[in-house]
Write a structure and sequence with these properties.
By secondary structure, this protein is mainly beta. The protein contains no helices and 11 strands. The strands form 2 sheets. Strands 2, 4, 5, 6, 9, 10 and 11 form a 7-stranded mixed sheet that branches. The protein has a 4-stranded antiparallel sheet with strand order 1-3-8-7, with no helix packed on it. It is globular and about 40 Å long. The termini are far apart. 35% of the residues are buried. The mean pLDDT is 97.
Amino acid sequence: QVQLVESGGGLVQAGGSLRLSCAASTRTVATYAMGWFRQTPGKERELVAAIDWSARSTYYADSIKGRVTVSRDYAKNTVYLQMNTLKPEDTAVYYCAGDPLGTLASRQFRYWGQGTQVTVAS
């Protein structure tokens, strides 16, 4: 069973930066595509960034493109989401998720973390 644990959320002023981390319990995730989602009350969970198993392909939602970078460290079994120039509308719970199929196209995210709260103050 793969366990994912997010960290790095918190309260930040608009224009600030945060780096979220997602640590996996097993090296198996090296073959997974990994995604970062966010959700606010009353809204559907939104995929904001993803990286394929090889780290050669990435995806960014239009709402956040140009302000975030997704990366992964295979030695640490960890995926990161660097977020810059944060806006109040970025406030959400951020989740990481793992897709065993490994590609950006599959979108079969089977394993989920518990989420980390990001709050951007205006």
